[in-house]
Specification:
The protein is mainly β. The protein has one domain. It contains no helices and 9 strands. A 4-stranded antiparallel sheet has the order 3-4-5-6, with no helix packed on it. The chain has a 3-stranded antiparallel sheet with strand order 7-8-9, with no helix packed on it. Strand 1 and strand 2 form a beta hairpin. It starts with a strand and ends in an 8-residue tail after the last strand. GO terms for molecular function: dynein heavy chain binding; dynein light chain binding. InterPro entries: DYNC2I1, WD40_repeat_dom_sf.
């Protein structure tokens, strides 16, 4: 609820990493790992911003932030085919209006 994100190992109650205020204080609505690149994950906050993290490139800050204007995003799901090396990765966004928006991710965050 405070925008912090923690990375845990299943064998420990203490986080391996913690990013405080990672969404400028906005609650985290959803967090999904990329299906095609294990070090990448996506975060959706309550203000309809999507943050893309690539832990191999930078483990301190997200690589980018994308605002989704005009329609509140309620949740997201990551799409992709991990068994294929095409680098095709997308995010399905469920909006308050009832629309589903699918956005594709740049290949640099999608390739294995």
């Amino acid at each position: 609820s405070d925008g912090s994100i923690r990375l845990h190992q299943m064998t420990s109650e203490y986080p391996l990493m913690q990013w405080n205020d990672s969404t400028n204080g906005q609650p985290v609505i959803a967090l999904q790992w990329a299906l095609t690149r294990p070090a990448v994950f996506f975060v959706l906050d309550a203000s309809s911003n999507i943050y893309i993290w690539d832990l191999l490139e930078n483990d301190l800050l997200p690589m980018t932030k994308q605002a989704i204007p005009s329609d509140n995003v309620l949740t997201m799901a990551v799409l992709g085919e991990p068994e294929k090396t095409t680098g095709l990765l997308g995010i399905a966004l469920a909006k308050e209006s009832g629309l589903i928006d699918i956005q594709f991710v740049k290949k640099k965050w999608a390739l294995p």
